[in-house]
Amino acid sequence: MESKDVVIGHPKPGWRFSSWKRIWLKRRTNINHERAFLLMFGSAGLVIFVYNALIAPPIPLCFVPDDLTTTHRPPSQPSDPPREFKRNYDFLSEGDKAFVWETAGNDTLDIRQACALESLALHNPSVTVYMLFSKERVNGSSITLRTLSENYKNIRIVGINMDSFMTGSPLEHWYKFTDWRKGPFNISHFSDALRFATLSKYGGYYFDLDIIHLQPVTYYRNFFATEDGIIVSAGAIHADYGHPIMQLAISDFVVNYRPDVWGHNGPALLGRVITKCVLPNASFYPVHYPRWREFFHQRAPNDTMKPDWLTREVIGLHVWNKISCKEPVYRNSTQYYTQLARAHCPAIFSIAPDVF
């Protein structure tokens, strides 16, 4: 075979060049199209950026409520109650509320009083507990009030301007224009007046400052408690807002007030107006006052028997502070009071001295 008959490569070499040229032109066209699209979208983005940055008003990235944009401040100290408490005393909050009054003119609570308040807040976390002082300036830096405030979100400590509080009340004339302060039991009667005025105006629970609470009280509503099954006490009360019994009580207080008889304007008053809604004495007064020393009796270390008065009916223990206040409580003792305090007011018990 001659060499001219040998075919090397493609019979038409120009085809390869023409194919590469067509492919190159096609790619060139696609690249130009992509650049055109990029240029178009880039120009649109630039226009939007310039408008937002230089022309349009600033728009936040997200909506933040005003109350979240304000500077956070520490909560008000108990010694500086919120303005609404000073002026309007708006205690008509949602949910249950309990009121406790300090009416002796003190600006703080002692260990025993603070223990009583803690036990109320501890066993009733859904109840807003208002610790009210009958003076505006309260020592919020005292160890008891500070401990209560730091450990219990449901405690509110409020100093009250009494003239403002009584203004517009059925007791306003009695408070401002009578000689009740000259009576031998003026502080006790002042306390009676305030519990009735508070519950008639706001409704809720009222408790004395010498009741150690052992269990929740919210199951019980519209009640008084008895001391001995006969005498109705004013130390533990509940009345719904607008309950007529409180209106009767406050009216009787004004009409029949006697400064010379200790219980006339409290327990005896309730006996005059109440015919039902009375809890048995076991609820708050299982230990009658002649036996008050049982709370402070030192028992043998191996004596683990539960006292006969500590039954399932007991909601709180009235410890008769009027006659027991000078009896010492030893922190490391076997006294019932010590055991109750350790279990039912642990935060205050942790700061209590060896003897209180």
From TrEMBL:
Record keywords, A-Z: Glycosyltransferase, Golgi apparatus, Membrane, Transferase, Transmembrane, Transmembrane helix
Keyword Transferase part of the UniProt annotation: yes
Subcellular location: Golgi apparatus membrane
SUPFAM superfamilies noted in UniProt: Nucleotide-diphospho-sugar transferases
GO BP annotation list: glycosphingolipid biosynthetic process
Gene Ontology MF terms in the entry: hexosyltransferase activity
Any one Pfam family match given in the protein's UniProt record, by short name: Gly_transf_sug
Membrane topology note: Single-pass type II membrane protein
Membrane-crossing segments per the record: 36-54
Main location class: Golgi
Cellular component terms (Gene Ontology): Golgi membrane
Domain (Alpha 1,4-glycosyltransferase): residue spans on this chain: 238-351
UniProt xrefs under InterPro entries: A1-4-GlycosylTfrase_dom, Glycosyltransf_32, GlycoTrfase_DXD_sugar-bd_CS, Nucleotide-diphossugar_trans
Family listed: Belongs to the glycosyltransferase 32 family.
Annotated protein name in UniProt: Alpha 1,4-glycosyltransferase domain-containing protein
Species of provenance: Daphnia sinensis
